[in-house]
Amino acid sequence: MDATKGMNYHLVILKKPYLELILSGHKMIEMRLSRGRSPLVGRVHRGDGLFLKVSAGPVCAKATVVNIKYYETLTPPLLARIKQQYNDRIMGADAVWESMMDRKSGLLVWLRDIRRIEPIRIEKKDWRAWVVLKEGKDFGLLDRTGV
After folding, report:
1. Between the CA atoms of 28, 119, 116 and 134, what dihedral angle is there, to the nearest 10 degrees?
2. Structural domain contains residue 75
3. In a domain, 118, yes or no
4. Is 64 domain-assigned?
5. Phi and psi (nearest 5°) for 146?
6. Whole-angstrom Cα distance, residue 83 to residue 106?
7. What is the 3-state secondary structure (H, E, C) of the chain?
């Protein structure tokens, strides 16, 4: 938690089509699912700030978490209900949903205050698609964006 601002910050890596849907206002919920216990459970909160980065590209947008819903015991029927209830704001293709039916936990993150920022290139070499940022381990984003 960033003591000076009272919120956490996260780096969220997205495939370009999903980032474009977020920026256009069509995708309002980001979904992250895991085969095991989600490492994000309890680490993402209302009011947290998100830096949105296109996969293999720069950080190019910011958003705020307005709501979050955790799921720790997902089943195919529950995933089907989540799809039915939220896919108009998640914007997942049928093939994506089909590939996720073996996931056991995850979260839905409602987004607001979505805004483009001047693109920022960072040196990120690992495969993590969501990174909880910490002071000194933030890819320089907190200093460069005046957070």
Report:
1. 60
2. yes
3. yes
4. yes
5. 70, 25
6. 13
7. CECCCCECEEEEEECHHHHHHHHCCCCCEEEEEECCCCCCCCCCCCCCEEEEEECCCCEEEEEEEEEEEEECCCCHHHHHHHHHHHHHHHCCCHHHHHHCCCCCEEEEEEEEEEEEEEEECCCCCCCCCEEEEECCECCCHHHHCCC
Model-wide pTM > 0.85:
yes
Sign of the Cα pseudo-torsion (69, 70, 75, 79, in order): positive
- Please give the Cα distance from 30 to 110 (Å, whole number): 7
CA distance 12 to 55: 9
Task: Say if CB 132 and CB 93 are below 8 A apart.
Answer: no
Is 4 domain-assigned? no
Number of compact structural domains in the chain: 1
User: Can you give the CATH number for the domain in which 65 is found?
Assistant: 2.30.130.30
68-94: b (≥16 Cβ within 10 Å) or e? beebeebeeeebeebbeebbebbbbee
| Domain around 126 | 9-132
pLDDT in tens, 57-98: 999 999 999 999 999 999 999 999 999 999 999 999 999 999
